[in-house]
Design a protein that fits this description.
By secondary structure, this protein is α+β, with helices and mostly antiparallel strands. Helix content is 30%, strand content 24%. It folds into 2 domains: 122 residues, Beta Complex (Metal Binding Protein, Guanine Nucleotide Exchange Factor, Chain A); 148 residues, 2-Layer Sandwich (Peptide Methionine Sulfoxide Reductase, Chain A), CATH 3.30.1060.10. The radius of gyration is 24 Å and the shape is elongated. It binds zinc ion. The site of zinc ion has 8 residues, from loops.
Length: 335
């Protein structure tokens, strides 16, 4: 009798282990799928398409020659060569963010030099075999305009040296915020995220909505399909004299798990991704610095999946999603 009982227990244990193994495999497959999907989304830079006639009207003759005809300014003549103020370097043609001031350095070549682009998807690379040289040309991924070249003699760990024309860029200085400011965050189901951000002293108002996707005025049902590219997000209006953007970043990172890719706990899909939508050069620099600091801190076992991307049109969600927990007298879903 005891022998039969032992056999039954053994059978149950083996069955349970088989199920667990199959589940693990499924999780591993799921994780791989998520990564591929995220990489595809990260590369989906919004394209700016204009005719050469339109570019000619918008740009100065010097900008047009360099940006649209792959020209080069004379060394040591560019306005941005000796600039080291904190801020963002944007495409001189379409305005897309390209480089961050903390990656700029003096290479001594006479052109602005950077160790890396602001995001991998911001730049496009092409082989350039003109003038009897073999070089790699870099272009703005959003509008295809010529920026300069990238070489392998840079000072950083990746050894890259992005050698960029001043005339190909415009500089946005990081300035001290005055008056009410906006900040936009995505960290999973927006009900709980709104509740927690609204409780930070200095936050004047909050609203939930959809942003970062490619469809206009999406509904909740559309965003739930994970086909719109939009994230469930919270737009915060805050008083920078009462609460710093860094404090909002702290709250944002502490209210969710920023290492999860395209999900937050039981909510799965890119609409639940972790993202910071920055409204200014100062916000971008603060957000990127915090991501870097947290990655280096050892606080998380996996690298952060949080995207730091420019703020886009914010579509407010349906009224019944606004202040969802406050209306129901709940304290949140414990995300
Ligand atoms: Zn551009």
């Amino acid at each position: 009798m005891q022998r039969t009982f032992s056999l039954i227990v053994l059978f149950l244990v083996v069955t349970l282990l088989s199920f667990a193994a199959a589940w693990q495999v499924q999780i591993a497959w799921g994780a791989e799928g998520d990564t591929t999907k995220k990489e595809a989304k990260m590369d989906s830079t919004k394209k700016v398409v204009k005719s050469e006639e339109e570019w000619k009207k918008e740009l100065t003759p010097e900008q047009y020659r360099i940006l649209r005809q792959a020209g080069t300014e004379r060394a040591f003549t560019g306005a941005l060569n000796d600039l080291y103020d904190p801020g963002l370097y944007r495409c001189g043609a379409c305005g897309a963010p390209l480089f961050r001031s903390d990656t700029k350095y003096d290479h001594g070549s006479g052109w602005p030099s950077f160790t890396e682009p602001i995001t991998a998807g911001a730049i496009e690379y092409r082989d350039d075999n003109t003038y009897g040289m073999s070089r790699v040309e870099v272009r703005c991924a959003a509008c295809g305009s010529h920026l300069g070249h990238v070489f392998d003699d840079g000072p950083g760990p990746n050894g890259k040296h992005y050698c960029i024309n001043s005339a190909s860029m415009k500089f946005e200085k990081a300035t001290q915020a005055t008056g009410p400011q906006k900040a936009t965050f995505a960290a999973g189901c927006f009900w709980g995220v709104e509740l927690k951000l609204s409780q930070v002293p200095g936050v004047l108002s909050t609203r939930v909505g959809y942003t970062g996707g490619h469809t206009k005025s999406p509904t909740y049902e559309e965003v739930c399909t994970d086909e719109t590219g939009h994230a469930e997000a919270v737009e915060v209006t805050y008083d920078p004299t009462k609460v710093s953007y860094e404090k909002l970043l702290d709250t944002f990172f502490n209210l969710h798990d920023p290492t999860q890719i395209d999900r937050q706990g039981p909510d799965i899909g890119a609409q639940y991704r972790s993202a910071i939508f920055y409204h200014s050069a100062a916000q971008e620099l603060a957000a990127s610095a915090t991501v870097k600091k947290l990655n280096a801190s050892g606080k998380y076992r996996r690298p952060l999946a949080t995207q730091v991307v420019p703020a886009d049109t914010f579509y407010p969600a349906e009224e019944y999603h606004q202040k969802y927990y406050q209306k129901r007298g709940k304290q949140g879903c414990g995300i």
